[in-house]
Structures are given as C-alpha cells and as structure tokens.
Amino acid sequence: MACTLLIFVRASRGRTIVQTSQTSSSQSRPDVHTLRSWSDEQLFLASQAGEQLAFRTLVERHVAMLRRLALNVVRDEHEAEDVAQEAFVSAWRNRHAWRPEARFTTWLYRIAMNKAIDRYRSRRAAPQPQEVIAAIMDRDVCASEPAAQQDELVRREVSITLRAALGALPANQRRALELFYFEELEVAKIMALMALSEQSVRALLKRGRQTLKLRLRNQKTLLSDGPRTLPRPARAPRR
Amino acid sequence: MDLARFRDLLARHGADLGGWPPVEADAAIALMSEDPAAQDLFAALVAADSEKAAEAPDTAGLVERIMSVVRRSDG
Predict the structure, then answer these.
(1) Which of A4, B18, B57, B59 lies 20 to 30 angstroms, CA to CA, from A174?
(2) What is the pLDDT of residues A209-230, one digit of tens each?
C-alpha cells in the first residue's frame, strides 16, 4: 500500500524530537499553506524524505537571504544568484548529511558562505585580464571588446601571460603594483606596508609599469591576434 | 585576523565586504574560510540587515531555476 511519510519535529527543553507518522494514500499530502506554517527543520526533514514541495517552501523562504549573503561577499548580482543556486542544490543533494540537532539555517548559510568564499578567491586569483591590463598600463592600452565577448581560451591565455609577466618583475616592483592596482591602496598605505618613502613607492610603480608594458607589448598573444587584439594607444600628435 | 578583530570590523564597516578596505576584506575571507563561528557572525548580521530591508528582491525566477536543477538532479 502506498504511503506518504509525514515528519514532524518539535523542540523540547533544548532537544529536537523527531516524530514520524505514516498516512494512507487516501490522506492528502500537506498543501502549500500547511507547509508554510512548518518550521525549517520540519520542512527539511520532509525534504530528506524526498518531498520537493517542502524543499521548494524552504527555497522560497530563504533564497533572498542567501542571495544577499553571497552578494555581500562576491559583490556581483549574477554571481550572488549563482552562489544561492549552488548552495540550495548542494543542500538538496546532501540533504541526508544534515542532522535535526543542528539548526537548518546555520547549516545552509555555511554551505552558501563556503561557496561565496570560493568565488571570491577564484576571482581574486584570476583578475579579468583586460581590466588589469588597462589599469596597469595606465590607459596606454585598452580592451577592444567587452570581456563577455571573448572566448574563454583567449581570456585564459591573456591571464596566464599577464601573470607570467608580473611574476618576472623584481619582487618589490611586483608587490607595489599588486597593492596599487589589485588592492587599490593609496600610495600612503603602500608606503606604510612596504616601509618605503613616497618617492621610492612612486619610483617602483613607474619602473614596474614600464617593464610590464614592454614585456606585454612583446607578447604576440596580446597584441597581434586579429579582432581580439588589444590596440596600441593612439599617440598624441607631436608638437 | 582573529574573531574579536573580525567582530570589531563588522561593527565598523557592516556585513558587506564591498565597503571594507581590500586588505581587511581578504583577511576576513581567510578567517571565515577556517572558522565557522566567523561565518555565523557574518551571516547573523546579514540576516539582521535583511530583515530591516524595506523591499524584498524579486526572486521568483531564481526559485524556478533552483527547483529546475533540483528536479533534474533527482531524475
């Protein structure tokens, strides 16, 4: 006989008590309005039993919070939605790992936070090549088309080339450039961090830019690849 | 960065890393990646901010996308 498993959870003196009951197929499943009155833990226990409507109720209840949580870390609305989606899908796929002793939202938020942190780090590790080039070359070179139009292979090549060029710089030049362009620190802050005078920091930035510009201009991948070429700057007419 | 420093910075800058100095934001990320208590602190503040928000964002499309993947993952 087909049965529907209904699961109830109630808190009693700090302990979570799980009760289960089986109903005959003649009894209807809880409707949306009933589900909305359930606690998170009740809903997720029902989700563990495969009730997608119960899980959907949880998604509707918490998706805005998860999106905001992710947005406050990754700072991009599309990425924040991706993180929220990945977190809920991960919660569904790993639903049997959750135990009712744990608060559901604590478990869910940690899943989302870890995914947001991964995104934050991967973006920091691989900055958009055109943004970085445009910044580092001090507007001498600018991107010819939006990043979204570039295929992934070319973007990866450019990123590798840029990282290699940065990695080849003397350590103090590289550090100054990273702090100035990637961390967006003011010169005064860089002076404090590197224990250098303003003149020294400015000299490091200038030499780093010049060396990087020279090396990047010699990269065929960057400068002579048809429509993806990063154009040389228009030079001001000589007087 | 330790949890006490993180708590101070949360009180000063709020639970939006976009408003933090980049070096401090990186340190906060490093702490949160290792310390679930830091994650919980951050999430609690975001939740409090969320409750105060005047308007809830439209998430209907996102809900459908999530449930679509959930259904496929069971298929």
Answers:
(1) B18
(2) 877 777 776 654 444 443 333 4
Kindly tell me if the per-residue pLDDT of A94 is higher than 70: yes
Tens digit of each residue's pLDDT (9 = 90 or more) over A117-126:
999 988 776 5
The alpha carbon of A93 is separated from its chain's Cα centroid by a whole number of angstroms, namely 21
Q: Cα-Cα-Cα-Cα dihedral of A68, A73, A77, A79, to 10°?
A: -120
Cβ burial A193-219 (10 Å sphere, 16+ → b, else e): eeebeeeebbebbebbbebbbebbeeb
Residue A70 to residue A18: CA distance in whole angstroms:
31
Site from A58, A65, A79, A82 to mutate, B interface, most B CB atoms within 10 angstroms: A65
Q: CA A124, CA B9: separation in Å to the nearest integer?
A: 21
Q: How far, CA to CA in Å, does A166 sit from each of A18, A66, A157, A159?
A: 58, 36, 14, 10
List the single best residue of B62, B65, B74 to mutate versus A (max A Cβ within 10 A).
B62
Q: What is the pTM of this model?
A: 0.59
Do B62 and A84 count as a contact with CB atoms less than 8 A apart? yes
